[in-house]
Amino acid sequence: xxxxxxxxxxxxxxxxxxxxxxxxxxxxxxxxxxxxxxxxxxxxxxxxxxxxxxxxxxxxxxxxxxxxxxxxxxxxxxxxxxxxxxxxxxxxxxxxxxxxxxxxxxxxxxxxxxxxxxxxxxxxxxxxxxxxxxxxxxxxxxxxxxxxxxxxxxxxxxxxxxxxxxxxxxxxxxxxxxxxxxxxxxxxxxxxxxxxxxxxxxxxxxxxxxxxxxxxxxxxxxxxxxxxxxxxxxxxxxxxxxxxxxxxxxxxxxxxxxxxxxxxxxxxxxxxxxxxxxxxxxxxxxxxxxxxxxxxxxxxxxxxxxxxxxxxxxxxxxxxxxxxxxxxxxxxxxxxxxxxxxxxxxxxxxxxxxxxxxxxxxxxxxxxxxxxxxxxxxxxxxxxxxxxxxxxxxxxxxxxxxxxxxxxxxxxxxxxxxxxxxxxxxxxxxxxxxxxxxxxxxxxxxxxxxxxxxxxxxxxxxxxxxxxxxxxxxxxxxxxxxxxxxxxx
Length: 489
What we know:
eight-stranded mixed sheet, elongated, 10 strands, alpha/beta
């Protein structure tokens, strides 16, 4: 018989599909190599006190994942039961475990759950036996139903009906609330599982707290007794307490109102000033925090200086310091101050007006010697990283510009090297007027004296004697003699 080419192709495709489907059925679904020859599996025996409804071909799970099947369930000579488990070779299961028989549903479908106790134990191997002490089976459902039935029969029918009716009255119509409670409990359990380590640490470390409660049980009992006594007194004086609650609020309100009326206008002014202080405190919050940080350290330093000679042989008591005077080291800064011709003589005792503008040391900010903590290096609290002598310069785009790179005043007061006035005026301010010249300095008195006696004629025509100018004055004079008045003066 001659077949058409198309029919031959169709038969070839049909045979190929049939072979593929048969292979999938045999190797994938039926798993014939495993079922018939045990390929890729090994056997483990579980000793059970009773079958517990376990049957052949039942599932075996490890951490909730199927890893094999029950190959056989048989009786032993000792009156027990052995279940032979066929487990997959590609899954390593620790040998330190428990085998429990569970029901997958209410109608049965028992399976074996392998629950490891340690992940560091060696894995199971072919021929291992899980002993009876590590195996558990569920209770017999018939015995459980019989016990439940006997318990229900022991309850009086009328009381049981009353319990059911009262339960319906208590929770009837609370379906949405119970649903929210269940959902909230589920969310709480999920969050607790996510934070399992902190919860475990809390439980482990709660023992000292509980021990402290046990140790202070007498104090807690006394506190509870005192609280009960106070509650009893409040109950006995219920009328007085009620009267205090009813009339106390009105009386307190009236007294508060009278107090506020008596404090006017002082209290509103005080509160307004506190608002200004609050604004300043908010602006200077970093500086206040730094002050609170440095204050304890500064106090500790002062205490260290006060007790340095404690219990010593020295007679000094109090702060123990060593002062070393360095005159003009470093030299004073005069740049940015009034020029020499506008400076006042130190002997003047009048009170002139403060010059208009800002007077401070105006050398470069990175000068390492003079006035390092001067006004030019004030930190701007509202602009981190910026330093300026005034708040207005801090909050503007203006940058600090030094007058020159030296330490002494230079230039004309109206035409300095940087083009700035001295003192530094705010933008738009008129230039500062030069101070009126002071009185002429007194003339220097010159007089001739007699070296033998130290006498000389003063400008007022009187004769004076300066004993330390005479030739008879001792040559070796101490600094104490220099401070004492000369003898006979």
